[in-house]
Transmembrane protein 229b
Amino acid sequence: MATAMTPEPLTPLSRWYLYAIHGYFCEVMFTAAWEFVVNCNWKFPGVTSVWALFIYGTCILIVERMYLHLRDRCNVLLRCFIYTLWTYMWEFGTGLLLRQFNACPWDYSQFKYNFMGLITAEYALPWFCASLIVERLVIRNTLRLRFDEWAEPGQVVGGGSGERGGGRGRGAREVATNANGYVKVD
C-alpha cells in the first residue's frame, strides 16, 4: 500500500535550471527583436552565449533570495529598483571576469552611457521591466512548483483528504495538483 506523501518544492538546482533557461530564451528573443528594430531584419536572428545559462541562472536565483527577504519589507517598485542595481553589478562583474579570458559575449562600447563596454545606462528601463517580470511571473510561479517523485505522469493528486487520485477535499476549496507541477484551484 502506497503512502500519501506531500510533494516537495523544487530544489535550488532545479530552480536554477528553470531560471537559466528563462534567461537564455529571453536573451535570444531580445537580440532578435533588437535586430529587427535596428536593422529591420525579418529573419529575427537571436543570439546569445553558453555563458548566459550560468549568468542568468545564478543572477535570478540570487534575485529569488532577495525577493523572499524583501517581499514583506518594501513595495514592488523599490524591489525592482534593487534587482536592477543587482543586475548591473552582476553583469559588470561577470563581464569583467569573462573579459579576462576574452570570453565576454557582449560589448556596449557603442552606447553613449556605457561603462567599460560592460554595462550601459540605456538598458536601465529594460532591466527594470525584466526584473518586474522575473519577480511577478517567473520567481513566484517557480516557487509554487512541486515535485512528487511517486506520481505517475498525468496523475492527479487530490488535495484536502490526503488521498491520491481524486478524493474530495473537506476544505472550503479543493486543490488538485497534476504530476507535472501545475496547481489547479477550484
Notes: The first strand starts at residue 8 and ends at 9. The first helix runs from residue 12 to 39.
